[in-house]
Amino acid sequence: MNGQPRVIHLKGASELEPKCGATDATSTTNWVRGASFAEVYVPAEVVGRVDVVCRRCQEEAISNDTGSDDEVVADDEETSVAAIADMSDADLLAEIARRMGNEEALSEEERKKPKDHRN
Predict the structure, then answer these.
(1) Residue 78 pLDDT more than 50?
(2) Do the beta carbons of residue 22 and residue 5 sit within 8 Å?
(3) pLDDT at residue 44 greater than cutoff 90
């Protein structure tokens, strides 16, 4: 592509133009702003096919989450680091699978594991 980095923009609130308002944007992607940290997440397949996510779009997204694919919910006591530290590995994996919509794969893995039969 003529030596230029492949840039992708974040979808704005209208989904017709990028979050940064650039008029020359050729492609946009879905995104979610992090709830715990000032970060922007894009789908993994997007990261693999572009060189960079527009910095202006990211800055706009951090300051204003309109256009995000998910509701941003601030941390509370239930999702604090202490609460996560108290969870078992199985519970953490189950929560990750639930959030990624892959509960069936996790259930299959659990069935394959030998059961601990301590009495």
Answers:
(1) no
(2) no
(3) no
